[in-house]
Design a protein that fits this description.
The structure holds 2 protein chains of 2 kinds.
Chain A lengths: L3 H23 L26 E5 L7 H11 L5 E5 L4 H13 L5 E7 L3 H6 L3 E2 L13 H6 L1 E2 L2 E2 L1 E7 L2 E5 H6 L8 H15 L5 E4 L6 H13 L16 H15 L12 H9 L3 E6 L3 H5 L12 E4 L14 E8 L5 H11 L2 H11 L12 H6 L3 H9 L10 H16 L5 H15 L2
Parallel strand pairs in A: 1-2, 1-3, 9-10
Antiparallel strand pairs in A: 3-12, 4-12, 5-6, 7-12, 8-10, 8-11
Chain B lengths: L1 H16 L2 H40 L2 E3 L14 E3 L3 H4 L7 E4 L2 E4 H32 L5 H13 L2 H11 L5 H6 L10 H27 L4 H9 L4 H29 L3 H6 L10 H10 L3 H31 L5 H26 L4
Helix pairs in contact in B: 1-2, 4-8, 4-10, 4-12, 5-8, 8-10, 8-14, 10-13, 10-14, 12-13
């Protein structure tokens, strides 16, 4: 019988070791130190100290960012900047920034902060408020400085902005002598006319981003705002259970039901929609500015190069749509050792020359109003004037310290309604209850 | 590890039979040596597993301070002790979500998803894995290619296979083309649950196959020859000879898969995405809470998963242990047979596991 026992012991040992590893792996976050001091007061912070710093920013696909850093370092010998490249995913960028704040990483100097993180990073004291006398905001678009402001203090300096655009098939609209739609009703009518004439079963009408992720929050907010509703009112209180907001969500849900929005779009993020539009299967498509250059590529990746144009987003009630504001701002990390260099770099990155070079290289929209009429930029990106309009009228997504919970609550409500599982008014009613407990 | 635990056992029996002083000298010297040899491993286990687990348990009794100052907009910092608050919050039913099993608290939804995935996946994997092992153990031309082919899914990192299946299950992807209809596999729906099961079974059935194959190869050919002479059919051979003899190995493989599936994370997360309640497992939920910097509740959920896994493992070992020791009446005849073969089966299973290395 003795042979049985070692084997059993191995089993027990293996089992408990496996179980142990589970807890160790899952509890990883638990061992982190408590949140950094949230007092946020800049008193005593030395904003002049020069020395090497790191810029923490997401993946640079253009190759332009290292050039800008080299340019800065050449002009700025007393404090060198290095690029700390973060992953592509916004969630992972946010997480690494938070973790390195908690371990008080002194090298982390400048953070490239998504507009929706401003409230959280400011309230939890991850970033330092920027001194108003050193950071004038009068040249920037108002929407972009709003996105960097929390409780009347500027916590970040706008570097790039973004607004939603309506991409449409100019060739098809011209063929049926239609104008770009300004409302959803016009869009649907245009689709019906084109589809009847083209007799192409693969041709779909319209799509945005409806997968359950941040893009859904953006598209839901645009539908609600475009119908005259709000998610969070001007007083900072949630007010989403209104007939206007219901109409916005109802319209999207109806369009899913009757196939005006293809059924598969419930799994789409930006890229799937762009693929469909580039393959010529979508007449109208809501996406960001980056699509323009990609859809115009003549290397065969786009079947519609030269056959499309952009227009402002259509409204649901009323004549124009309202975009959700996107973009990134540069913020000064709380625990940065050499804050002087960090401040110099933030100013450098937001200067008109650098923004222009960055826009030319990446097609990210600038935050300085005058750049939208810059001849060189407009020549390369003819949609700049429309983009300007989109950003000027754009609404920010709700400013919330626990933005992660807020956006998930919004996605829960919208996703259920779009799938036809819940009625839009009931979904918004429960969203209102949830938001009231999250935003105080 | 097998030899380390086995040796003192045999030494002590020898010692009881033999001389007293000899036993002492032997065990003392070896005991110290054993400790010295095991020390590096123990230190590593304590540092990478022991301490984090203890810290996690401590963290699970704390809650981060919340509340925004209405004048400055600043959030209170630090954490305070909340006793079992994080655990009792699970039962409060505040955060209802809709998943595969109706509307319920997010924790329970994740708990049922985890259990559901484990039950369905492990059963399917065991059936497929045994079938694979039977094929791989047969001698035929091209056996090498078949073996390599079956093992390919296991060699692919889970997150890579998650992205691969994501492409396959895309609404305009290969799977829908083959089926000729549009199923939204990647949506937050029952289809997503199914998609994860398919991908998981594809990936890990070879693991069970490989371990079972190791068990199969220890069965001597004479047993089958004798069965053939006695006129046993193929099914009888499988049920009466192959299955009982491969059982010790198979049991270890199934246990490992069960424990592994209970903490499933990367497949649903990479393929379907976060915040999708139809495929949210306990690991994903705990991770999501940690991302929201609610480390206390996150740790509490991880601890519950830890206890759950431990419990299942314990039940497994207890049940199997009872089985291995023997069953009442036909004890004698069975014992004779198993005495000769079982150790080999177990050893081979252990050897196979240690060679697998990256099982978890």
């Amino acid at each position: 019988m003795t042979f049985v026992r070692p084997a059993r012991r191995v089993l027990i040992a293996a089992a408990s070791l496996s179980a142990l590893l589970v807890a160790a792996a899952c509890g990883g976050g638990g061992s982190s130190t408590p949140a950094a001091s949230g007092s946020g007061s800049a008193a005593g912070a030395d904003l002049t100290k020069q020395g090497p710093i790191e810029v923490w920013q997401g993946k640079d696909t253009s190759g332009n960012f290292p050039k800008l850093i080299a340019q800065f370092n050449a002009q700025h010998p007393q404090g060198k900047v290095t690029f700390h490249e973060l992953p592509d995913s916004a969630d992972q960028q946010r997480q690494q920034m938070i973790q390195n704040t908690q371990i008080k990483n002194p090298q982390m100097g400048v953070l490239s902060v998504d507009v929706v993180w401003t409230a959280e990073f400011a309230a939890k004291g991850y970033v330092e408020a920027l001194p108003a006398d050193q950071f004038p905001t009068d040249t920037f678009l108002k929407a972009t400085t709003d996105s960097a402001t929390y409780f009347n203090k500027l916590y970040a300096y706008p570097s790039t902005s973004d607004g939603g655009l309506l991409y449409y098939r100019k060739d098809l609209l011209d063929k049926y002598s239609l104008k770009p739609p300004t409302t959803f009703d016009e869009m649907k009518a245009a689709c019906q006319k084109i589809k009847a004439g083209e007799n192409d079963s693969k041709l779909e009408c319209f799509a945005g981003q409806y997968n359950k992720y941040e893009g859904l929050t953006v598209n839901f907010a645009e539908a609600v705002n475009g119908a005259g509703g709000v998610i969070v009112g001007d007083d900072g209180k949630p007010n989403v259970a209104t007939p206007e907001a219901t109409k916005g969500l109802q319209t999207l849900a109806d369009w899913f039901k009757d196939g005006t929005i293809p059924k598969g779009a419930i799994t789409w993020q930006e890229e799937q929609g762009r693929q469909a539009f580039q393959n010529g299967t979508l007449i109208f498509h809501r996406n960001w500015g980056y699509v323009y250059n990609l859809a115009n590529k003549t290397d065969g990746s786009s079947k519609i190069a030269g056959k499309f144009d952009v227009a402002p987003l259509p409204g649901i009630s009323g004549s124009t749509g309202v975009s959700s504001l996107g973009g990134h701002n540069y913020a000064l990390a709380k625990n940065a050792e050499n804050k002087g260099t960090a401040i110099d770099f933030i100013k450098f990155m937001s200067s008109p020359e650098v923004q222009k070079s960055n826009t030319l290289a990446t097609s990210n929209s600038p935050t300085i109003a005058s750049l939208y009429t810059d001849p060189e930029l407009v020549k390369k990106f003819p949609f700049m004037p429309i983009q300007l309009k989109s950003i000027e009228t754009a609404k920010p997504r709700p400013k919330a310290v626990e933005y992660g919970d807020v956006t998930l609550a919004i996605q829960d409500a919208a996703y259920g309604a779009l799938q036809g599982q819940t009625a839009p008014d009931a979904a918004l009613q429960s969203l209102q209850t949830k938001l009231q407990s999250l935003i105080k | 590890m097998a030899t380390a635990t086995a040796q003192p056992q045999s030494i002590s029996t020898v010692g009881n039979d033999g001389h007293k002083h000899k036993k002492n000298a032997l065990s003392d010297g070896q005991g110290r040596l054993a400790w010295i040899l095991l020390a590096p491993t123990l230190i590593v286990i304590i540092v990478v597993a022991g301490i984090p687990v203890l810290l996690s348990i401590r963290e699970s009794f704390f809650t981060a301070n919340a509340g925004v100052d209405p004048n400055t907009g600043m959030v209170a910092s630090g954490e305070s002790f909340s006793g079992l608050g994080n655990f009792s919050a699970i039962f409060s039913g505040m955060d209802n979500v809709g998943g595969n099993f109706g509307t319920m608290g997010r924790f329970w939804n994740a708990f049922l998803n985890t259990t559901g995935f484990t039950l369905i996946c492990v059963v399917l994997e065991t059936i497929l894995g045994v079938a694979m092992a039977l094929i791989m153990s047969k001698a035929f031309r091209g056996r090498g290619i078949v073996r390599a082919g079956i093992l390919v899914p296991w060699a692919i990192p889970t997150i890579v296979s998650a992205l691969m299946w994501k492409l396959i299950f895309d609404e305009a992807g290969v799977m829908n083309r083959i089926l000729g209809q549009q199923i939204l596999w990647l949506a937050d729906s029952g289809a997503g649950f199914l998609a994860v099961i398919i991908a998981d079974v594809w990936k890990t059935a070879p693991f069970i196959g490989l371990l079972t194959l190791a068990g199969l190869q220890t069965i001597p050919g004479e047993v089958y020859e004798a069965a053939k002479v006695d006129g046993a059919s193929a099914i009888q051979q499988f049920v009466r000879i192959t299955l009982p003899m491969v059982k010790p190995t198979l049991v270890v493989a199934v246990l490992f898969r069960t424990l592994d599936t209970l903490r499933m994370f990367d497949l649903p997360y990479g393929m379907i995405g976060p915040g999708k309640y139809h495929v949210e497992t306990l690991s994903i939920f705990a991770y999501q809470e940690a991302t929201q910097q609610r480390y206390g509740p996150a740790a509490a959920y991880a601890i519950i998963l830890f206890i759950y896994v431990l419990l299942i493992a314990f039940i497994f070992v207890k049940l199997l242990g009872a089985d291995v020791i023997g069953d009442g009446a036909p004890k004698k005849s069975k014992k004779k047979k198993s005495e000769g073969i079982d150790p080999d089966g177990e050893k081979s299973a252990i050897a196979a596991i240690s060679t697998m290395g990256g099982a978890h």
